From TrEMBL:
Organism: Panicum hallii var. hallii
Protein name (Swiss-Prot/TrEMBL): Rubisco accumulation factor 1 C-terminal domain-containing protein
Keyword Coiled coil included in the entry's annotation: yes
Biased composition (Low complexity): 1-13
Annotated keywords: Chaperone, Coiled coil
Length: 455
């Protein structure tokens, strides 16, 4: 209930008398400006009026300590070090202009000036520090602070290495790495006395290394937690892209200078041996050619409506790459097929199925065929594979490894696809299944290039 109070209402005529028409109109005009003096509460109560018996809880305001003013707003902590907080504006500009102290000590002054309304050009005019150098100092100071954090676990006694004049440029190149990577990269930069260009190469190699999984051959032999291995892998990749054999050998020698783990060193040395044989005119089996070219297996891309338009289709069980060989072997097998009516019987129930056109190689092995679902096509053993989900149709009845084939096997609990040649080199003679066809998902026609677009 909303109660209103107004002096005119208290002096109104008694309730048994009717007010004149003009007085009632005047009262309505005055009442239109009356403000609510109560708050509605559940159950009909209110905070105002005689009938209101329920009140809102009252919380007294906090009291300030004796001798201090109460400030409900607390400003953010000052970015300035304690020794600079008492300086006025002129003194702060003088510190920057004369470079008083270490660079990481006066670098926070730039951020403080920006908060006070200074622009990079006005700071440059007052101090002589260019906008590019200002950004380098501020970012390098933040990187240095991250090295001191508990997450980085960087030895404090090594921080003095970056107190030199080139220290900001070195730390600036580590800005894209996380705290742990920054600490590892900073240690590597100190051990090898790297210049800013070398630190930039190191940081880029560490940032790029996880993206190369399943894309470049030899990735598994390098340790992504080691800055040396990341840098060695980047140079290893550059050697494979070199046209001249001399350039290739030079990049491999640079990779051997920084490689840290034994498997990675063995991989680089093997590549070095092949490069030197090629430089001497000897015949060398180019492994990188195998990594680029597709093996002798059909790789098809489905078209929209292809399954519906196919004269025959196949219903095949599907397993994920994370299910392992046990799940692939337990997938149902076809026991009987009614050709006229298209009825298929299997030996056990199964949850996931795929419908594919009745391609010849798959139809010939339909009783033992199974589909392995790969979430990323780049896990296929050739470099031209794209980042897209693919279906690998394999024949579980063919397990003997041949060098020309492509096979499915289990590694570390995952189903992977490997070349028969590589398995033979490793002494593996049997696999879980032989790959029949690799199926790629449909693609919008707008993304496809027609033959007429090529000159």
């Amino acid at each position: 209930m909303l109660s209103l109070s107004h002096p005119a209402a208290a002096s109104a005529a008694p309730r048994h008398h009717r007010a004149p028409r003009c007085a009632a109109a005047s009262f309505r005009r005055r009442a239109s400006h009356i403000a609510a003096s109560a708050i509605l509460l559940p159950g009909g109560g209110s905070t105002g009026g005689r009938g209101g018996d329920r009140k809102l809880p009252f919380t007294p305001p906090p009291m300030a300590p004796p001798g201090q003013l109460y400030r409900p707003y607390h400003p953010p902590p000052s970015p300035l070090p304690a020794n600079y907080r008492t300086l006025d504006l002129t003194q702060r500009l003088e510190v920057l202009r004369d470079r008083m102290g270490q660079w990481h000590e006066y670098a926070p002054l730039i951020s403080a000036l920006s908060r006070d309304g200074f622009t990079p050009s006005s700071i440059e005019e007052a101090t002589g520090i260019s906008g590019v150098e200002q950004n380098c100092l501020v970012v390098a100071s933040q990187v240095r602070d991250s090295l001191i954090s508990e997450t980085a676990a960087f030895p404090p006694d090594l921080l003095s290495y970056f107190d030199s004049y080139s220290g900001p440029e070195l730390l600036y190149e580590l800005r894209f790495l996380n705290a742990r990577q920054r600490a590892d990269a900073a240690k590597h930069a100190i051990d090898y006395r790297l210049e800013p260009k070398g630190v930039r190469e190191l940081a880029r190699s560490m940032k790029d290394f996880p993206r190369r999984r399943g894309v470049d051959d030899g990735w598994g032999e390098f340790d992504g937690a080691s800055p040396g291995d990341c840098l060695a892998f980047a140079r290893f990749r550059q050697s494979r892209e070199a046209i001249n054999v001399e350039d290739r050998i030079a990049e491999l020698e640079r990779a051997l200078q920084v490689v840290a783990t034994d498997p990675a060193r063995a991989r680089v040395e093997l590549e070095m041996e092949r490069a030197r044989k090629k430089a001497a005119g000897e015949e060398v089996e180019e492994e990188e050619d195998d990594a680029v070219a597709r093996p002798a297996v059909n790789v098809v891309r489905l078209q929209y409506g292809e399954v519906a338009e196919a004269t025959t289709v196949l219903l095949l069980p599907v397993v994920r790459e994370t299910d392992g060989v046990a799940a692939m072997e337990s997938a149902p097998r076809r026991t009987k097929t009614d050709v006229d009516l298209g009825i298929v019987e299997v030996d056990k129930a199964w949850a996931r199925w795929a419908v594919v056109p009745g391609w010849g190689p798959v139809a010939a092995a339909a009783e033992e065929a199974v589909v392995v679902e790969l979430a990323d096509g780049r896990r296929l053993p050739w470099r031209t594979a794209e980042e897209e989900p693919v279906l690998v149709i394999a024949n579980r009845g063919q397990k003997e490894v041949a060098e020309q084939g492509l096979y499915v096997l289990e590694k570390e609990g995952r189903l992977v696809v490997e070349r028969g040649k590589k398995l033979a080199e490793q002494g593996i003679t049997t696999a879980a299944a032989e790959v029949l066809i690799v199926v790629r998902p449909p693609r919008d026609e707008d993304d496809m290039i027609s033959d007429e677009e090529w000159d």
